């Protein structure tokens, strides 16, 4: 192995599912990685335990009340970690000159500003927060190109596509002779459930994913297949792939994480057990390879791999995402914001599972009046779409 320079990492969203898996990989390689900053929205106890294990220079909480609690815990333990709070502090620890790489693992549009700050500062950006890219699209990719940031996908599908593309062609599929990008999807917990029972499913049933353990928002997105829809848009931006080059393949075992088909008929797939530490370790060490603590794939145990076409009637959110990408403009930003509001309302039991797609569709119909040509315009589109979605949610609650 070439001599390794210690890489300082900021983990945004450290207490979440991706954040914890990232710190698991960090802990396996103390000679390679050092934690510069950790952030969490409200779980100060969990962040305290992480700070005591990894001794970051900074810890950032979402509110000053939570920051006060964390600071008290750190003081009592004799820690020197400095506690900050609020959105500006997130941008500060993402763009600090000492930082080599930033794990963007905040869920939802809340992660946009710090992730963009890391991109603008030319960091190695490990992108889990797909909503930030769906929301800001071209603006985000321009920031990456202008600063020379290195963007590495953490989403298992996009990480697989990245691995299946020749080095140097990450944003030029045509140049690489790509015919199709095949994004695999498990189909979530409701792939076979009787359609007439979907109106009654509960948040816990929607969050019980058959193959992956994830945060609640992305778990609901997997149950509606909006997650795959967001990933289609994510693939469009990450790889410069036109919408017609991207296809979704339902593959319930979640062993093939995605594939790239070439002009000569070759199809290159990346396989592995469904464990996010594989794409995380891949991106953190890239272009080298390191141990991720992941169980080796046992093909004899798996025995078979199944594939199906996606059912756009069962999963209207997937159709809406393709439509939003085809419409362009503010439509993807509206899709994302309306989805975040609708999923939060479903998790709070304010609307039913099938209402999620209805709320989003109603908002998308109004999206043409919005622009997304600057960060301010993107944030305005996000805010307007949330207002529309809240109105739709109220109307549905009243029914
Ligand atoms: P999670 O809910 O488990 O964790 C979210 C993290 O973000 C937490 O640390 C939380 O404190 C922080 N956070 C939440 N709201 C915030 C706010 N308003 N401001 C600042 N911080 C906030 O989510 P997750 O499953 O780890 O997913 C994180 C991101 O990674 C999502 O964008 C998701 O789509 C993506 N992703 C996750 C997985 C997975 O397996 N979990 C796979 C692929 C992509
Ligand atoms: Mg994924």
Ligands and ions found: nicotinamide-adenine-dinucleotide, magnesium ion
In helices, the fraction of residues equals: 40-55%
Helix count equals: 16
Shape: globular
Poorly predicted runs: none
Quickly give the structural class: alpha/beta
Keywords:
four-stranded mixed beta sheet; alpha/beta; globular; binds magnesium ion; binds nicotinamide-adenine-dinucleotide; Rna Polymerase Sigma Factor, Chain: A; 46% helix; 399 residues; 15% strand; 3 domains
Descriptive report:
The structure is a single chain. The protein has 399 residues and is α/β, with parallel strands linked by helices. It folds into three domains: 7-153, NAD(P)-binding Rossmann-like Domain (Rossmann fold, 3-Layer(aba) Sandwich); 155-273 and 281-313, no CATH class; 328-399, Rna Polymerase Sigma Factor, Chain: A, CATH 1.10.1740. 46% of the residues lie in helices and 15% in strands. The chain is built from 16 helices and eleven strands. The chain has helices spanning 17-28, 44-54, 64-76, 87-95, 112-120, 130-147, 156-164, 203-207, 216-224, 226-239, 277-285, 299-302, 316-327, 331-347, 355-364, 375-398; strands spanning 7-12, 33-40, 58-61, 82-85, 101-104, 124-127, 150-153, 178-185, 246-250, 256-262, 267-271. It has a seven-stranded parallel sheet with strand order 4-3-2-1-5-6-7, with helices on both faces. It has a four-stranded mixed sheet with strand order 9-8-10-11, covered by helices on one side. Helix 2 links the parallel strand 2 and strand 3. The longest helix is centred in the C-terminal third of the chain and has 24 residues, at 375-398. The protein starts with 6 loop residues before the first strand and ends with a helix. The mean pLDDT is 97. The site of magnesium ion has 4 residues, from helix 7.
